[in-house]
Amino acid sequence: MTNADPHELQKFSDLAHRWWDPNAEFKPLHELNPVRLGWIDRHAHLAGKRVLDIGCGGGILSESMAGLGASVKGVDLSHEALGVADLHSLESGMNVEYEEIAAEALAEREPASFDVVTCMEMLEHVPDPSQVVAACKTLVKPGGWVFFSTLNRNVKSYLFAVIGAEYIARMLPRGTHDYARFIRPSELAAFVRAAGLSTVEIKGIVYHPLGKHFALSPDTSVNYMLACRRDA
User: What CATH number has the domain bearing residue 112?
Assistant: First the structure.
């Protein structure tokens, strides 16, 4: 059984043609991307590294990492999103390899093959996030970096990420997030430990509505990222 929710895949497939419109449904990803990219690069020094972007969607982060000199492979289970990613990479001239395959299947085929693995804004959309975390550990080389980002599960995150972002500010389409699938930092840290990864840093991301920009923060109550390493 593939660790994927057909409803979630269809939801993003239906919006695939809008992925690279900076003023459409994926506008928050475009605004968030420089923050997460800079944070990843500060830890992993992407230039010259072989990088895997799991749940790459239309390729916003994948292309950005390639732009910093990484050799990037993006994987996703949305055929439509990958089609958009492929087309945009041709237009932008960014050399990114894309494949429609689950992280778990790729882990069986190519273990310990990547210097860096990213899995951003995906864990809250799959039935069993711990399986994805375990696959990330298998895919990264010993000493390599793994990065996750997701949403915390509490009253504040529900108010900000669901009610605020989807219904009031309309930054995201209604139904983008299922609150029941949000993941507390302690839960993600437990998945990471069980997989055999070590947490190096946890960082929150906050949105400043007046300046209309995202920034890193010690506040992990809504959006947060985890930087991890595989020791062996």
Answer: 3.40.50.150
